[in-house]
Amino acid sequence: MSTVGIRTRPRARARRRVPAALLLPALIGLAFLTLPLVGLLIRAPWTDMPARLAEPEVLAALRLSLVTATAATALSLVLGVPIAWLLARSDFPGRRVVRALITVPLVLPPVVGGVALLLVFGRNGIVGSWLDETFGITIPFTSAAVVLAMTFVSMPFLIVSVEGALRGANEGYEEAAATLGADRWTVFWRVTLPMIAPGVAAGAVLCWARALGEFGATITFAGNFPGRTQTMPLAVYLALQSDLEAAIVLSLILLTVSVVVLASLRERWTAAP
Amino acid sequence: MRTATARTSLAALGCAALALSACTAGADADDGASQTTLSVFAAASLTESFEEIGADFETEHEGVTVEFNFAGSSTLASQINQGAPADVFASADEANMDTVVESGSAENAETFALNQLVIAVPEGNPGGVTGLGDLQGLKVAACAPEVPCGTTAQAVIDAAGGQVTPATYEADVRATLAKLTLGEVDAALVYRTDTLAAADEVDGIEFDEASKAVNAYPIAALTNAPNADLAREFTEYVHSDAAQSVLSGAGFEQP
């Protein structure tokens, strides 16, 4: 296969030749990633879509998915960015161990993660039994449990992205701000955070997307109750047990909504100076 | 399953030995080498009993290996309808067998076992549950209406007047039971066979309304079965006294 010239960014006017050694695997990879989606699109009973969207159960699942995934992303930002900062900017003993621990939810099968969450936050769990006895709060089978399950599996994506951004950022600006009298919080809030904003945004998008698709930990830890803990992936899985076409329609609805949300966010970011 | 694989490897050894002897002896090497594999697609709730029945069937039929594919009945039905090379299908409900019959993959299905719902409670029944009426105010897990055990659960709850609202509708019966063994719910609506399989952790409480929605398990030899005769023999064997006693030992009832 010969190399093909492709247009690079407008700024770099000269056409560059892409080496076949890169182009060929890239094309195969692209086909591998997109063909399953094509399969879904071909099998989709498009005419059913409006009727499905009007079903109160589908709307409830969609709303719950969007709300909980957003809440999980917010929680991940509040807790994850500080973790990333600690990993990238401070030197504490056991930092390597902490970094390894953070990747555990990435490799853990989500269902196992759900069981682990039950063992801690469940009715008989270490924290859960205390919450139950002291405040009468039980977490499983609530929307809060959905948010916790999503946060558990998706926060590592945010931490890894933000830590990468922090390591790539020029520390000279932070040092300059500190020399000019800014305290460490001001340096973080006024200098570091604006500097790594694109990395944080990318991490948040990744985290949101992972949370939106979360299934295993959610069904194990939060159960499945329409309107309360039944997110779109759960609705899809259950529809699959009785009606393949319905499952495909539901997946496409989730896919379309997430693509629209991400595209509109992207537009807003790129519109900003 | 273990016996099946052990048999397969034994058979492989046998074949290898035959091949060796064939080099020297030549002609009369075919003796006993004709191995047939019967492929049985069976509902997950049949796992333990069918493994035992399959092993007995192998003992009675020399040269036959029974291979099982255990999964949810709806998954199996769609695999068969998509052309999976199966000989026998045993479903946990009539609806999924119906889709297989309608698609022409099977002709006559016969019910070989019945399964009833019970209320599973922690061992020793600390809440003193005696019937569906006692479940009000308790945390209850049930199967989702999309899966067979959930259809049955909903029918039973409706028959009782509908006062029970589960806290969660799980994707399958084992997941429903797991919510109980993990201590997250006070009771779970599951099959009697499931409570017997987990007898050291849970008790199964029988209740009147359960008889209003009994799950029938149909079995059929498939029309495109690679081993049609053997498939028919297996479905007949499942109705035999020996196989039926294995099933009732697991908590199934005879039709």
Describe this structure in words.
With 273 residues, chain A is mainly alpha-helical. Chain A has a single domain, classed as MetI-like (MetI-like fold, Orthogonal Bundle), CATH 1.10.3720.10. Chain A is built from 14 helices and 2 strands; from the N terminus they run ββαααααααααααααα. In chain A, α6 crosses α7, α8 packs antiparallel against α11 and α9 runs antiparallel to α10. Chain A is globular. Chain B has 255 residues and is α/β, with parallel strands linked by helices. Chain B folds into 2 domains: 114 residues, D-Maltodextrin-Binding Protein, domain 2 (3-Layer(aba) Sandwich); 96 residues, 3-Layer(aba) Sandwich (D-Maltodextrin-Binding Protein, domain 2). Chain B contains 9 helices and 10 strands. Chain B has a 5-stranded mixed β-sheet. In chain B, α3 runs parallel beside α4. The longest helix of chain B has 24 residues. At the A-B interface, α6 and α13 of A face β7 of B. Chain B: GO terms for molecular function: metal ion binding; molybdate ion binding. Chain B: It is a lipid-anchor. Chain B: Keywords: Cell membrane, Membrane, Metal-binding, Molybdenum, Signal, Transport, Tungsten. Chain B: This is Molybdate-binding protein ModA.
